[in-house]
Amino acid sequence: MSLYARANATVAATGTAVKNATASAAKTTTTALTKAQKLQRTAHRIDGAIYKWYVIAGVVFALSAVYVLGLLRALVIRRRVAAKRKAGATPTYGTTKAGGLTTAPRALKALYDNAAYVRVLPLYLYQRTTLAEAFWTIAYIGVCLGFGFWGSIFRNLPLDIANPMGLISMSQIPLVVGLASRNNVLSYLTGIGYEKLNFLHRTAARVMVLSVALHALTWAHRGLPTDNNIHSDVFKWGVSAGSCLLVVFLTSFAIVRRVAYEAFLFIHIVFVLMFLVAVYHHYEPYNYWVWPGLFLWGLDRFVGFARLVLVNKLWFRSNSTIELVDTDVLRVTVNRPLLRWSPGQHAFLTMPQVAGLRYEQHPFTIANVPDGTGNAVFLLRAQNGFTRRLVNKLADDVSTSINTYVEGPYGISHDMNHYDSVLLVAGGTGVTFALSHLLSIIKAGREGKTAVSHVRLVWNVRDASHARWIAPLLNDAIAAGAGGVSVSIDFYITRSEASGEPEEKGHTADRDPAPDATDSPATTSPSGSSTGVDQEEEKPSASDKLMLAAGLNAAAATVAHFHNGRSHLEHILREDVDASAVDAAGVHVAVCGPTSLALDTRRAVCKVNSSVAVLRGQNPVTFYSETFGW
Length: 630
Ligand SMILES: Cc1cc2nc3c(=O)[nH]c(=O)nc-3n(C[C@H](O)[C@H](O)[C@H](O)COP(=O)(O)OP(=O)(O)OC[C@H]3O[C@@H](n4cnc5c(N)ncnc54)[C@H](O)[C@@H]3O)c2cc1C
What we know:
By secondary structure, the chain is an alpha/beta fold. The chain has helices spanning 3-25, 35-86, 103-118, 131-152, 162-171, 173-180, 185-190, 194-222, 233-250, 254-259, 261-282, 290-312, 386-394, 431-446, 471-480, 541-549, 554-557, 569-578, 595-608, 611-615, and strands at residues 320-324, 329-335, 346-350, 362-365, 375-381, 399-401, 405-410, 421-427, 454-461, 486-493, 560-564, 587-592, 621-625.
């Protein structure tokens, strides 16, 4: 029976007595409630908890519709432009006619995108979130508490927030559990990866904690009824559930996740399961909210385990090749012909011989694209736990093989093949995300399946030799050809922290953006090129040596450029926008790197993609940011 049907059944069960009670309730103020009044008020609360889900379903439906329309639009543009280019047509350059029906909506969109997604709120307002994330957080809390209070007010009966708050907290269970799942239906419907939806998991969990606190405090203030006193099962299970939730809440703070992730995860899983059991027994009439939570959790684990067994063919030994490519960076190659993934997706690696907790799993972005060999390549930067143990294990043996299990792929791939020009900005191992997209565009170019005419990778690294991390993949891809796509690979050698590691969501407070003044324009390419767009020029021998040291072959050397200092992103982006064609979906910028780099990129996009410039006919710029965390 559906939840709504249950609510209706509850109302129906009250029968005629309720109708009579309603009439008399109008006269009641603070006197004891009749059974019929109580039942009717309960049905009213249940309605509130269910209406909240109608709102959620409506929003999910709207987001899904936007997602599907976006996919269709991208498909149409990609096919149209790719067919034109295949037929030999050159891209159309110049600007769109200003102020017309085309540029006005685009200018409005640029204004909206910059305000909602590209700019981040100042750090003193909690965290560096976008306005869109802040909006969804506040809207969700508003809807939940709104329906909670609506459920507390019934006709002119006395206000009762104790039980409505209990009900609101229980009705969060499916969403809290569902949003934490890797195999997440909402992600597939809306196109927003589960790791990006994680902020809503935390929001729903906070609503749950807040409503449980209000539920408990109100009962404590009012005094327990005699049939539910401190010796009753309701009380004991309630206190158990509340205690478990408190432990989960206190061990979920960012600092705990950063310092002891495995402990956080273990406590999270064990105490959430204990919470679900306790809350199930606390108030059985509402335990239909617990079942969906248990179901979603079980389904997620079942699907994850099934993928693990199938992808790794667990009936064999599953090896990997691990190379120490730098003092702190590992390249892991696993051969799993059954693993199918799209650019930007990640997978969880388990290496029981290295793990602290035997089956601990860690997510890493797959740096290459499927090429028929079944090889998936990962780049791992050593932190302090599992990854450090792996580096230590390899310290004496620079290339070894360790039993590895892969679960994935996860995350929703962000396709870029309908844009005319793509600028991929990376710092440190954030290159895994950028490289997979670069290789995917090159492959699509080769196959005549992309609208992209120019793709540029800007990678900030501390040392030119870091190019070796990705050189084998680049060499093969460039040598195989990119069709009509012009490729530029710009290495910016910073020899500083600025090239550091990708930001982790929620961990952004500890690094400040470097001042703009530290950026140096891209003028020191050994090839003499100012920006790295010219592929045809001959390299002087110093450059040849540099390419050799970086492990790049002759083909890759024709598109690679080395620069000293940090990339000047506004300058680079402006150049790409000016050189872009107008027959595809404009220019796209994607970044994966440390906080300072992500903030620089955001600033560059806001400056170049001003609504005034777009109104005047400039190609619009869209933006995407990837983080290594949730
Ligand atoms: C979607 C995604 C893609 C990623 N891709 C890459 C990549 O391509 N290359 C790369 O070097 N790193 C990547 N990371 C980061 C990588 O997962 C962590 O650096 C790694 O798990 C750290 O393990 P550790 O035990 O050595 O870390 P610790 O020293 O214990 O912790 C270091 C940091 O990693 C986080 N962390 C630890 N374990 C996990 C875990 N199981 N899940 C999520 N976060 C964890 C901690 O919160 C902490 O902030 C990615 C992370 C995510 C979420």
